[in-house]
Design a protein that fits this description.
Blueprint: E1 3-4, E2 13-19, H1 26-36, E3 40-44, H2 46-49, H3 53-61, E4 65-68, H4 81-94, E5 101-102, H5 110-118, E6 124-126, H6 140-149, E7 156-160, H7 174-189, E8 193-194, H8 197-202
Helix pairs in contact: 1-7, 4-5, 6-7
The structure holds zinc ion.
């Protein structure tokens, strides 16, 4: 199975994931993980890295997982296989061939994208099971509520720490940061911890019965 939208139902484990970064507010998210524990998975957009190499380095150094989210955030529907392969490879070179996870922009055409990514040494394509739409929603409490209501063993939550260069949506990611400030301590209180997607996928499910 190379396309996943959730992990095994491992007790108390979920994966918070972040797309389109690194961005100016990624360090705030890293600070919150440092304060409350746990790790995230950051699906890096190649074009976002320039000038933010230090932030990417810190993200890796602090034990978070890095995934490939293409270089320029193309719509898969509008791109040929070759164009997608090139865009994925361009991001992968920037990331030093380390990532094993891929997330298609917009989650679009995931099965086809997964086959192309798999051929580029990215065996697992990751979608999500909880979608707070934080790229659109500006109320931190509303974002936090979707995260907390979606808490279930194995859940994968889709958030955003930056934005594609060509986008009409609001760039400022303060609502996401403030939502995490609410959600992370509450997750802990409910017995949940965010682990990386690779850790989540490797976790043992709760024994039935
Ligand atoms: Zn994206």
């Amino acid at each position: 199975m190379s396309v996943v939208s959730q992990g095994p139902a491992a007790a108390g484990l979920v994966a918070l994931t972040f797309d389109d970064g690194p961005g100016p507010q990624t360090p705030d998210i890293l600070d919150l993980f440092r304060q409350h524990g746990g790790h995230g998975t950051f699906f890096v957009l190649g074009e976002s890295v320039e000038g933010r190499e230090e932030i990417l380095g810190r993200t890796i150094a602090e034990g978070h997982e890095i995934g490939n989210h293409t270089f320029s955030h193309p719509h898969a529907m509008d791109a040929t296989d070759d164009e997608l392969a090139h865009d994925i490879a361009r991001c992968q070179r920037l990331l030093g061939h380390a990532p094993v996870l891929f997330r298609p922009p917009y989650g679009e055409d995931a099965l086809r994208c997964s086959r192309i990514a798999e051929a580029r040494m990215l065996p697992t394509t990751v979608l999500w099971s909880v979608d707070p739409s934080d790229w659109l929603e500006r109320d931190p409490q509303a974002i936090a509520t979707v995260i907390l209501d979606g808490l279930a063993p194995g859940a994968i939550v889709d958030l955003h720490d930056c934005w594609p260069r060509h986008t009409s949506t609001e760039a400022d990611r303060t609502p996401t940061v403030e939502a995490l400030r609410i959600a992370l301590p509450e997750m802990g209180a409910r017995g949940y911890r965010s682990v990386t997607v690779s850790e989540l996928l490797a976790a043992a499910p709760i024994a039935p019965g």
